[in-house]
Amino acid sequence: MIQPQGFEQRSIMTSLGKMAYYTATGSLWQENPPKTTEKETLVFLHGFGGGSSAYEWSKVYPAFASEYRILAPDLIGWGQSEHPARNYTIDDYLTTIREFFEQTCTESVTAIASSLTAAFTIRVAITHPNLFKSLILVTPAGLSDFGEDYSRSLFAQIVSVPILDRLLYSTGIATSGGIRSFLEQRQFAQPNRVYEEIVEAYLKSAQQHNAEYAALSFVRGDLCFDLSLYIQQLLTPTAIIWGQKSQFTGPDIGRRLAEKNPQAIRVFKPLEDVGLTPQLELPAVTIGLIRRFLALLNE
């Protein structure tokens, strides 16, 4: 898989198998002589969609590697992590995300997470607040928020049909044209910001053996839930970035979620002219906002 210079792939074992992750290594990020104090940890968690992986954050996390310990996992069923042949559930990801933090972090950390995974991270922070120092979230949505049932949508119903679901995945999603079309038309606000490396990274992830299981569980709606039923329980200091042109969940949903818990959610920042993944579409702006929020939430 594509990974930034100065980073290497490692792995841990979760209850569902090997989870790969990327972390800084070598002299590129080290001081000479190195500091004796241990760096704080930032964990970057990617969202879900055909071909998703830790690559989603790879234009952002190197900017923090000289100051922080960086961890960027491929979640189970995605990227270079194991792809068990199963129908995935919400509990699968709540469990394996928690296991990742427990196995790789000895102190509470800042988690920086995207879309549905950001919503899962909120739920993990509610049940295990000791794991988290703060949260910086991009479009955290359960995709069935405020009673909207995504699983009843036409597309979710179509991909719930056996045999047809895998045919659609192999011919319409896990192809160069399918990946590019989705990125340009649904994920990015500006199609001209999609360049060949992004398509290649998503395609490599989408074509991993058994990659269709996690992707189809996602698009069927098996992993969706109503975040509004949980968010008031969050105690961890949180900042939210929301792409104004996110097609799946608009900023109005984000504002309603933020208003349910102003004590924990200290910042809600709509970002103009960007879609679901500002970390790929406008990485420099995203880096600047993360720096600002790290200072604000951890002061």
Structure description:
The chain has helices at residues 90-104, 115-127, 154-158, 164-173, 176-187, 196-206, 211-220, 251-259, 278-281, 283-297, and strands at residues 7-14, 17-24, 41-45, 69-73, 109-114, 132-138, 238-243, 265-271. It is globular. It contains ten helices and eight strands. It is of the alpha/beta class.
Q: What value does the Rg take, in angstroms?
A: 18 Å
Secondary structure: number of strands: 8
Q: Characterize the largest beta sheet: strand count, sense, and whether it forms a barrel.
A: 8 strands, mixed
Distance between the amino and carboxyl termini: 36 Å
Helix content estimate: 25-40%
Q: Report the order of strands and helices.
A: EEEEHEHEHHHHHEHEHH
Strand order of the largest sheet: 1-2-4-3-5-6-7-8
- Average pLDDT over all residues: 92
CA-based shape: globular
Secondary structure class reads alpha/beta
Beta-strand share of residues: 15-25%
Spans of at least 5 consecutive residues whose pLDDT stays below 50 are: none
